Amino acid sequence: xxxxxxxxxxxxxxxxxxxxxxxxxxxxxxxxxxxxxxxxxxxxxxxxxxxxxxxxxxxxxxxxxxxxxxxxxxxxxxxxxxxxxxxxxxxxxxxxxxxxxxxxxxxxxxxxxxxxxxxxxxxxxxxxxxxxxxxxxxxxxxxxxxxxxxxxxxxxxxxxxxxxxxxxxxxxxxxxx
Length: 177
Ligand code: FEO
Known about the structure:
Elements: H1 4-33, H2 37-63, H3 85-110, H4 114-143, H5 148-158
Helix pairs in contact: 1-2, 1-3, 2-5, 3-4
MU-OXO-diiron (FEO) is lined by residues 17, 20, 50, 53, 94, 97, 130.
């Protein structure tokens, strides 16, 4: 059985991951409404990744014979000053999640819960990639603040939203979407 302090914190994290999903849907819809389809596509894909992160955590608790608590969440930010602000919101969110993931790994280790510590390793790696890709995108949209189509071109060229399936990823409960 996972350590109870880890279970409590992981249930909180499930809420943070679903909140990240909702926030990324809101960012995608903002760009979609502005007819910026590449930026929209990038954040629609990110939203699904966050949903899958939440369901990987649900799956881990189910595998460990612990009943997960599916949370309600606060609403996301829906209005933005310009094309830069959504990416800043996203980067701030990823940095916050990185601290939360590191804290979860630390709680597992402090409680000698080595299976849970190992479960968190994939998320630690994932956060490094997500902070890096969001910080690249922030550089780009800052440079293209008044010419958003250049940011669209960059995304089309770099295929920045396209991430292949990762065979090392934990299985989400019910399967990945
Ligand atoms: Fe699941 Fe990017 O945090």
